[in-house]
TrEMBL record:
<keyword id="KW-0436">Ligase</keyword>
<dbReference type="InterPro" id="IPR028923">
    <property type="entry name" value="SAICAR_synt/ADE2_N"/>
</dbReference>
<dbReference type="InterPro" id="IPR001636">
    <property type="entry name" value="SAICAR_synth"/>
</dbReference>
<dbReference type="InterPro" id="IPR050089">
    <property type="entry name" value="SAICAR_synthetase"/>
</dbReference>
<dbReference type="GO" id="GO:0009236">
    <property type="term" value="P:cobalamin biosynthetic process"/>
</dbReference>
<comment type="pathway">
    <text>Purine metabolism; IMP biosynthesis via de novo pathway; 5-amino-1-(5-phospho-D-ribosyl)imidazole-4-carboxamide from 5-amino-1-(5-phospho-D-ribosyl)imidazole-4-carboxylate: step 1/2.</text>
</comment>
<keyword id="KW-0547">Nucleotide-binding</keyword>
<dbReference type="GO" id="GO:0006189">
    <property type="term" value="P:'de novo' IMP biosynthetic process"/>
</dbReference>
<protein>
    <recommendedName>
        <fullName>Phosphoribosylaminoimidazole-succinocarboxamide synthase</fullName>
        <ecNumber>6.3.2.6</ecNumber>
    </recommendedName>
</protein>
<dbReference type="InterPro" id="IPR018236">
    <property type="entry name" value="SAICAR_synthetase_CS"/>
</dbReference>
<keyword id="KW-0067">ATP-binding</keyword>
<comment type="similarity">
    <text>Belongs to the SAICAR synthetase family.</text>
</comment>
<keyword id="KW-0658">Purine biosynthesis</keyword>
<dbReference type="Pfam" id="PF01259">
    <property type="entry name" value="SAICAR_synt"/>
</dbReference>
<dbReference type="GO" id="GO:0005829">
    <property type="term" value="C:cytosol"/>
</dbReference>
<feature type="domain" description="SAICAR synthetase/ADE2 N-terminal">
    <location>
        <begin position="6"/>
        <end position="235"/>
    </location>
</feature>
<dbReference type="GO" id="GO:0005524">
    <property type="term" value="F:ATP binding"/>
</dbReference>
C-alpha cells in the first residue's frame, strides 16, 4: 500500500492526509528541540507519551464544550484530527512567572501572577517567534478583533480546565502554549484548539517539591524527560501499562 501523503513535517510532529476530506492524521515523533531547534535530541518514547497526553487533554476539553481539532487516537503515535487553518500565532497563558517572562521583566521564577496573563507570539522560526501585541495582529490581518476576543476567552477556558486537572494530581500549571485554528462551515467560521497540549508545551511543577515535569527537563538538562512525562501520565491515569518504550519489538518472556 502506498504511504499516505505527507502534508507537513514540523519539529515534533508530522501531518498526513486523513481518511476523509477535512481530516488529517497527526503523528508524534520522538524528536525534542529547544531554543529554536539549536538543541535537538531524539528521546525514545516521547511521541507515544505526548500522543496519549494530548488525547487526554483534548478529549477532556471536547467533553466540556471547548472545541478542539481532536477526533480520536488511532494508535500509539497517531491521532485523527480535523483539518484546520492554523492562525500563525502562539497563544501563551501564564499563571506563575517563569521562562521568557521572568527573563524579560526580571520577575523571579515561581512568582504567582495577580491574574492569568495571555500573550501572543508570531509563529516564525526565522524570526524566533517574536512577541506581538493585539495591534500587530489586527494591523497585519492575522486575526480580527472578534477573533482575538474569542481566542482570549478560549485560552482562558483551556487554562481553567488544565489548571484544575493538574492541581487534582498535585501538579501546578505554571504556563502553557496553544495554537488555534479556524474551521469553516460554509460561510460560518469557528475557532478550535489545535496542534497539541502536552508537557512539551506546558510548564508543570510538582506542587510539593517544585520538581519540573515538562520540557524544561530537556531545555535545562535536569534529568530524564521520559521519566518526567511518564510521571505526569501516571498521575493522570492515562498510561495503565508500561507502553512508553514500545517503538521496538521486544520479546516478552
Ligand atoms: N512554548 C512552546 N513553544 C514555543 C515557545 C514556548 O510550547 O515555541 C511554551 C513553553 O513550553 C512554556 C510557555 O510556552 O510552557 C511559555 O514559554 P516562554 O515564553 O517562557 O519561553 P521559553 O522560556 O520556553 O523559551
Amino acid at each position: 500500500m502506498a504511504r499516505r501523503k505527507k502534508i507537513y513535517e514540523g519539529k515534533a510532529k508530522i501531518l498526513y492526509e486523513g481518511p476523509e476530506p477535512g481530516t488529517l492524521v497527526q503523528y508524534f515523533k520522538d524528536d525534542a528541540t529547544a531554543f529554536n531547534a539549536e538543541k535537538h535530541d531524539v528521546i525514545e518514547g516521547k511521541g507515544v507519551l505526548n500522543n496519549r497526553l494530548s488525547e487526554f487533554f483534548m478529549s477532556g476539553l471536547n467533553a466540556i464544550g471547548v472545541p478542539t481539532h481532536f477526533i480520536k487516537r488511532l494508535n500509539m503515535r497517531e491521532q485523527l484530527i480535523r483539518q484546520v487553518e492554523i492562525i500563525p500565532l502562539e497563544v501563551v497563558v501564564r499563571n506563575t512567572a517563569a521562562g521568557s517572562m521572568s527573563k524579560r521583566l526580571g520577575i523571579e521564577e515561581g512568582t504567582p501572577l495577580p491574574r492569568p496573563i495571555v500573550e501572543f507570539y508570531f509563529k516564525d522560526d526565522a524570526l524566533g517567534d517574536p512577541m506581538v501585541t493585539e495591534e500587530h495582529i489586527i494591523a497585519f490581518g492575522w486575526a480580527s478583533q472578534q477573533d482575538l476576543d474569542d481566542m482570549v476567552a478560549l485560552s482562558l477556558r483551556v487554562n481553567d480546565f488544565l489548571s484544575g486537572v493538574m492541581m487534582a494530581v498535585g501538579i501546578k500549571l505554571v504556563d502553557f502554549k496553544i495554537e488555534i485554528g479556524r474551521i469553516w462551515d460554509g460561510d460560518f467560521m469557528r475557532l478550535v484548539v489545535a496542534d497539541e497540549i502536552s508537557p512539551d508545551s506546558c510548564r508543570l511543577w510538582d506542587v510539593k517539591t517544585g520538581q519540573h515535569l515538562d520540557k524544561d527537563v530537556f531545555r535545562r538538562d535536569l534529568g530524564s524527560l521520559t521519566d518526567a512525562y511518564s510521571e505526569v501520565a501516571r498521575r493522570l491515569g492515562v498510561l495503565p501499562s508500561n507502553v512508553t518504550h514500545a517503538s521496538k519489538p521486544t520479546l516478552i518472556n
